[in-house]
Amino acid sequence: MTKKEGRWMSVSIAAAVYFMFGQNALAMHIMEGYLPAGYCIFWGALCIPFLVYGFIKIRRIVSENRRSITLLAMAGAFIFVISSLKIPSVTGSCSHMTGTGLGAILFGAFPVSILGIIVLLFQAILLAHGGLTTLGANTFSMAIAGPFVSYGLYVLGKKLKWNQKVNVFVACSVGDLFTYCVTAFQLALAYPSETGGVAASMVKFLGVFAPTQLPLAVIEGLLSVVIVIALESYATPELKSIGFLSDTPVKGESVNE
Questions:
Q1: In terms of DSSP bridges, do strands 26-27 and 87-88 run parallel, antiparallel, or are they unpaired?
Q2: Which of 77, 171, 207, 229 has the maximal Cβ count within 10 Å?
Q3: pTM of the model as a whole
């Protein structure tokens, strides 16, 4: 066997092990069948208005500015890749970054709901990460709740005239943390503790995620800052076209042009 063939064999074995044993009952994506049917329906129905308006917003963005397609695709790819990297946590669970904060500060919270549900659907089908029955719950926590917090904090930071890099870091890292808080609430609501009810159960779920999710949120914030810096250097016209850098002139142009 050649070295090249040996590498391919190693990759195939690793992939087989991942798909056979890589599923966790407690994860940032709630797994297939973990929530009762009533909760699956509730969270799915709650997502519908956000998804409908998100679809309308994306159509409007694309129709008004064709340049935005590249950035939309980049934001979706970032969400897919970064949220697929699962980090083992305690008691058989796992944590991961979300990547939705970056899309929220670029396009707003509603369009990210569409990017998020597409990513979650592909992950559920192709990676056994999450599930189809829990798609609504996972969409609400990762693609709706988190992005809205990120977008709200980013807008607040702009009004308070925070430093741009600090603003991006805070928005993306806190949005990530809020996603995991919502997931913990969803699990606690479905499985309240016998002593203490939903509140006690939520504290337990938060404790499961916290050891790994806190540093991951910091890492996501830093990664988002790095990506924004890179986009400002190499995609200034595209950022101006979507209004992200509306006050920053392209090199050789004035703001009034």
A1: unpaired
A2: 171
A3: 0.79
